[in-house]
Write a structure and sequence with these properties.
Elements lengths: L7 H13 L10 E6 L2 E7 L9 H4 L2 H4 L16 H11 L8 E6 L3 H9 L4 E6 L4 H10 L2 E4 L4
Parallel strand pairs: 3-4, 4-5
Antiparallel strand pairs: 1-2, 1-3
Helix pairs in contact: 5-6
């Protein structure tokens, strides 16, 4: 029998990692979990919109066009994990104001603007993403950003 339970951040980041395993992106697998009062509200992973063929099937447009990470987000078939989590909450009518977003990678500027506008209070992320403007958006919007380091 184990002696300790995972803390809440570890628990939700582990779940975000499992959510990321559903990703259909060929470049980066990302998972996001929206949580309030230690309850999961919605999840999302990066991939093509429902009903569209995934990059696993048709290849990566960004790779073909040699688009660097952190640039030209519109040149992609997929939605980001954070976007999919926000959309899932909207589709099912789940209020998310004040929630925490646990995400496997630092959000990009597009997701930062959406999360801030949705009233997300905190973002906890693990992996880096090259987007300083996203951090500036979070700071100006008053969204607390924490880099999670596994024990």
């Amino acid at each position: 029998m184990r002696e300790t339970r995972p803390g809440w951040d570890e628990y939700f980041m582990t779940i975000a990692g499992v959510v990321a395993s559903r990703s259909t992106c060929l470049r980066r697998q990302v998972g996001a979990v929206l949580v309030r009062e230690n309850r999961i509200l919605a999840t999302g992973y990066n991939g093509a919109p429902a009903g569209l063929r995934h990059c696993l099937e048709v290849g990566c447009l960004r790779e073909r066009m040699e688009v660097p990470a952190g640039e030209r987000h519109e040149l992609c078939r997929g939605l980001h994990a954070e976007q999919n989590a926000l959309l899932q909450a909207a589709v099912y009518g789940i209020p998310i104001r004040g929630a925490t977003c646990y995400v496997t990678h630092q959000p990009c500027v597009l997701c930062a603007k959406m999360l801030a506008n949705a009233g997300i209070g905190e973002v906890v992320f693990a992996g880096d993403y090259p987007d300083e403007l996203a951090r500036q958006i979070f700071a100006e919007a008053g969204v607390r950003v924490t880099r999670w380091e596994p024990c």
